[in-house]
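Deviation from plan, reported transparently: adenosine monophosphate complex.
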Amino acid sequence: MKLLRTKADLNAWLTERHGITRFLVPTMGALHRGHTSLFDQARGETGKDGDVIATIFVNPVQFGPNEDFDAYPRPLEADLEKCADHGVDAVFAPDVSEVYAADRSISVGENRLSTTLCGASRPGHFDGVCTVVAKLFNLTRPDAAIFGEKDFQQLAVIRRLVRDLDFPVRIVAGPTVREADGLALSSRNIYLSAEQRTEAPTLARSLREVAAAIASGEIGDPSEARQEFLDRFASASLARLDYFEIVDSSTLAPLQSFAGHEPRLIAAAFFGKTRLIDNVGLPRD
Ligand code: AMP
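Because the crystal trials were delayed, the predicted structure below was used instead.
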């Protein structure tokens, strides 16, 4: 496996691998089974003759001023081992100064899907994501790229980025990988105290139970589903709900009715300072 630290390293590798199908897996590192499942899925899709390139880059421009950019874990050695164990061909892990000019003056913004949900709580976050993903697409020039459904709004925004700016990149979604108790794996789970960790699965469980009640016909409309979620999630006494919405899975528009939509139940909650997100999907009604 090649470790590429600079754009020059990356370009030399791209030249060497000219003509080979390339699958990109962008990450911020602190890799867990959620990330490695994306490496495995990328490998499965691209086949043994294709290349899988992972990027490890904690992108400063997607963090708000009071967020955890400095504290974000950066265990590079352990991450590289996981990449190698999952058949990644190359890892691009540049420094911030390699990616952003000190006087950079252009960014990419999305102004519809990113205004709600996490975008409402994290102003500027999705512009930072769009900017770095556009740059990573230009730098690594992949045929396909995979993003986790765990960050469902991000996935929807990136599909728009590709559609609206005509990036020749196929976007693939990876299912959410969970702990045995249902908690979605996240690099931020390490911030949870023991008590918070015990309660954290309530988020996934409440989403799953409400989705099951909708699927069985027990719940017939989004407002009923909302009340049911609030009732269930109230048992997490340490949590503060940031949002819960039932949205159309492509437009992220809130639904008044399930009819004609592929609904997604999506939520975020604070456990202390740690903000957890999760979502579950339902088949088109
Ligand atoms: P991050 O390092 O948090 O930026 O995540 C990198 C990629 O891994 C994103 O596409 C995430 O959606 C995806 N990801 C993070 N957690 C999970 C998970 N539990 N299951 C599947 N994919 C995940």
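The beta strands are 2-4, 22-27, 51-56, 90-92, 144-148, 170-174, 239-248, 263-271, 274-281. We consider this an acceptable substitute for the interim report.
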